[in-house]
């Protein structure tokens, strides 16, 4: 059985065809990142327009690379939640038309479920496992108990870590930095941090008063902005010019982001073991999302995992960010599990906001 996966929830137009064993027969991806980076952020109607311009070509490219015709597909799987309404709409409309024309079953996909299950495409991982998703739009700690069975332990109460790193990078004008040409904000910070002294700055760890697994990055962002402003005054330079101590700031920011993520993840591990949600012998931490490609954060999480008897797993970087492969894989998982496969396209809508699984964050807090 073959599945076509389609992704348009944010700023990537992706498509892929996979077979039931997870073999990628064909894939295509059109990223809008560069265009949005120039604009300083994603403008929803621009994203929509670009998805419209590219969706057909991306889908056809994935199909032709796979040598599979639409009539041979077992189903079409498409991201319907969560994401930008205007972006989700393009992929959904295209997919529903295709499903109707060829009379194919349709599998609506939760974008974060797809991120969480991607690891099962590249590694042998059995349920349950602990999963941490770190990206530009999300920060989630959850237990994956089954293909469509998740327990939500915690999430960000304001912005996601990638968003915060991008904002700090913009405030530091890192696009103008000679060593950071063409890098995403988080990537630029990681690069500069390698040669910075993090101890020159200390930023208070967020959410110390909350004994839960939620995250917060916007207060931290304000603290960093204040430090940057202070330093600009000291050095007598204007906003937009590069500070001499930019590497030290990058290192300190990266460190506090890592420390915050590690602290919340540690609490999640202890909660899961104490309540037998995960078994000590087979406990696994899976980390994904664009920010998971940060080596400093990754190494910290890896050390945490091993210190607590967890295996540490992360998909390869190209599967950590948005793509069509993970959507098709989620379709395969659902097809195999026999859940969420629809034989009529009536009444299917996209949902910009959609929680992942059952929220047990209050229980975590009471228990900690
Ligand atoms: P979502 O998947 O939640 O819809 P998104 O598409 O913005 O959001 P991704 O493509 O998974 O997320 O990740 C992009 C984010 O990852 C950006 O914020 C970027 O700055 C960050 N990022 C990329 N590389 C690194 C790195 N090496 N270190 C830290 N952050 C990074
Ligand atoms: Fe994503």
TrEMBL record:
Residues 24-329 form the Gcp-like domain. SUPFAM superfamilies: Actin-like ATPase domain. GO terms for molecular function: metal ion binding; tRNA N(6)-L-threonylcarbamoyladenine synthase activity. The keyword Transferase applies. Binds 1 divalent metal cation per subunit. It catalyses: L-threonylcarbamoyladenylate + adenosine(37) in tRNA = N(6)-L-threonylcarbamoyladenosine(37) in tRNA + AMP + H(+). Its cofactor is a divalent metal cation. It is an enzyme of class 2 (transferase). GO terms for biological process: tRNA threonylcarbamoyladenosine modification. GO terms for cellular component: mitochondrion. It comes from the Eukaryota. Pfam families: TsaD (PF00814). Transmembrane segments: none annotated. It is found in: Mitochondrion. Its EC number is 2.3.1.234. Keywords: Acyltransferase, Metal-binding, Mitochondrion, Transferase, Transit peptide, tRNA processing. Required for the formation of a threonylcarbamoyl group on adenosine at position 37 (t(6)A37) in mitochondrial tRNAs that read codons beginning with adenine. Probably involved in the transfer of the threonylcarbamoyl moiety of threonylcarbamoyl-AMP (TC-AMP) to the N6 group of A37. Involved in mitochondrial genome maintenance. Belongs to the KAE1 / TsaD family. This is N(6)-L-threonylcarbamoyladenine synthase. It comes from Coturnix japonica (Japanese quail).
């Amino acid at each position: 059985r073959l599945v076509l996966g389609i992704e348009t929830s944010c700023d990537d137009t992706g498509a892929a065809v996979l077979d039931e064993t997870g073999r990628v027969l064909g894939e295509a991806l059109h990223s809008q990142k560069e265009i949005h980076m120039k604009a300083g952020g994603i403008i929803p109607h621009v994203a929509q327009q670009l998805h419209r311009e590219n969706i057909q070509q991306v889908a056809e490219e994935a199909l032709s690379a796979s040598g599979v015709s639409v009539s041979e597909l077992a189903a079409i799987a498409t991201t319907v939640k969560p994401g930008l309404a205007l972006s989700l709409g393009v992929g959904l409309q295209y997919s529903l038309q295709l499903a109707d024309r060829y009379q194919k079953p349709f599998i609506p996909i939760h974008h974060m479920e797809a991120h969480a299950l991607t690891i099962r495409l590249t590694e042998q991982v059995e349920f349950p496992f602990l999963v941490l998703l770190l990206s530009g739009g999300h920060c989630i700690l959850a237990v994956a108990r089954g293909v469509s069975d998740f327990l939500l332990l915690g999430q960000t109460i304001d912005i996601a870590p990638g968003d915060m790193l991008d904002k700090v990078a913009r405030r530091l004008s890192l696009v103008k930095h000679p060593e950071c040409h063409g890098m995403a904000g988080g990537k630029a910070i990681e690069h500069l941090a390698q040669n910075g002294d993090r101890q020159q700055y200390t930023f208070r760890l967020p959410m110390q008063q909350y004994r839960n697994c939620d995250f917060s990055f916007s207060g931290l962002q304000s603290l960093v902005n204040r430090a940057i402003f202070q330093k600009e005054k000291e050095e007598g330079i204007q906003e937009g010019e590069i500070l001499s101590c930019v590497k030290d700031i990058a290192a300190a920011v990266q460190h506090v982001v890592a420390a915050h993520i590690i602290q919340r993840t540690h609490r999640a591990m202890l909660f899961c073991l104490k309540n037998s949600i995960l078994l000590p012998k087979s406990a696994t931490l899976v980390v994904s999302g664009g920010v998971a490609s940060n080596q400093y954060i990754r190494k910290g999480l890896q050390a945490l995992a091993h210190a607590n008897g967890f295996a540490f797993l992360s998909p390869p970087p190209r599967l950590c960010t948005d793509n069509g492969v993970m959507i098709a894989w989620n379709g395969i998982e659902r097809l195999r599990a026999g859940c969420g496969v629809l034989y009529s396209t009536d009444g299917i809508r996209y949902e910009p906001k959609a929680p992942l699984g059952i929220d047990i964050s209050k229980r975590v807090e009471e228990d900690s």
